[in-house]
Amino acid sequence: MYKRAGELAEIVHNSKEIHIVTHIDADGIAAGAIALQTLKRLGKKHSIEFIKQLDEQVMNRLKNENHNLVWFTDLGSSISDNSQSINKIITDHHVCSDDVDFSYHLNPHLFNLDGADQISGAGVTYLVSKSINKKNKDLSFLAIIGACGDLQDRKNCKLIGKNQEILKDGKDAGVIQSKIDIRFFGRETRPVYKMLQYSNDPILPGLTGRESACISFLQDLGITMKDGDNWRKWVDLSKDERKIIISNIAQLLLAKGFGHKLTKRIIGEVYVLNNEVEGIELHDVKEFATLLNSTARYGKPDVGINVCLGDRNKWLGEARNLLRGHRQNLVEGLQFAKEEGIKKREFLQYFHAGSGIRDTIVGIVANMLLNSEEITSDLPMLGFADTENGDVKVSARGTQQLVERGLDLSKALKKVAAELNGVGGGHNIAAGATIPKGKEEEFIDILEKEIKNQLYSSDVL
Ligand code: C5P
Ligand code: C5P
Ligand code: ZN
Fold first, then answer.
1. Does 162 share its domain with 221?
2. C-alpha 116 – ligand 2 centre gap (Å)
3. Which end of the chain offers a freer environment for a tag, N or C, measured as fewer CB atoms within 10 Å?
4. Confidence at residue 103, expressed as pLDDT on a 0 to 100 scale
5. Domain range for residue 219?
6. For the segment 412-437, what is each residue's pLDDT rounded down to a tens digit?
């Protein structure tokens, strides 16, 4: 991979003008920011754009724009060899087309590594950046934000593989550190009871989703929840207070029969940025990633990219406003999907949000539903939402257990979408597609057979 990164670095060096095309999620923004900062430092003429998905229309437009070089980051794996007419490099981590041209493509799947947890789009982009100049090691923190934004720490409760190597660069450069701590979201910014209320990996029986139960739980443990007028956050608690809470959560899970493996998931590696102030949305890497997700997914990529590039004034203020809206949209989206009803088939479950949930966040909602107490996690979850061009977006999410049994959503969605004149792809555990409106039922029928085959044939093997 390092050799390929060096080859791509050479192509960048030899290009006069470079246009970056990246994805609208946290990993995409982080990848775009690494590429942009690298080109700025090189003094190269550059531009950047953010897209939801790479389709023929985008490729045709790019062809006509005649860029000296197009640098695709966190997307591009679907490009097949017949689009030679664009001078390009690709740094992506999605499952590739069979007919990719190796010479300009850096992707873990080309090196037998899984792009779902070994390295992210921002990670592979960082490898090229580091190849261009060792001094770019200070950008490694963005690669870690991208990896955590894509939930690459989820399977092992920590980053692994190439992500760990990148983390080491970040530690060497003094920009990041890792700690063993509770893995719940909002350690630095949420009142402790809220952090428990929203926990979903694992779900805390009797606590997740129940505000007053979380408050009583903490009161019973003798934890003071307020410091004057301020709610205390996890990072405000003493070591002893944190120990008491962790051991009581563990006891609760074990008593409910969750087993040691699942119980252990409450603790893991968390990542914090040395150059950010503790207690704000940028210090903890997961929170930083969520802040980025609140920007480009709502058509405001400038906000996310400027925060990545270091703005802590105007753009950060704007990002915080967007974050409030994003949280509200997720709460309403969950509610909407539940009211609409989760329909169960034998091998999958789904909801159709119509125009009730943005197509850019329907995947996050699908993931949250799959991880919620009242919904089974034995079946992959699909979420449909209308797009602004009159098509339908599908987001599919699975679990590690299903993947271990043979589920490959990337393969399935790619195949079924193509049969219906759509496009799809992604990872085994999470994939997406866009299909023509009106084809939803057909899509579900064919996909269900595909999933059945995947699970059934690997069981037999
Ligand atoms: O487009 P991209 O690759 O950046 O997005 C990855 C998607 O995969 C994210 O939506 C993330 O939530 C999902 N994912 C997941 N569980 C994992 C790894 C990734 O849901 N273990
Ligand atoms: O959009 P969503 O979050 O559901 O996407 C899940 C994963 O599938 C992401 O990694 C995304 O980049 C990928 N995807 C894709 N092709 C599509 C739609 C999504 O590769 N047409
Ligand atoms: Zn990604």
1. no
2. 12
3. C
4. 83
5. 190-269
6. 999 999 999 999 999 999 999 999 99
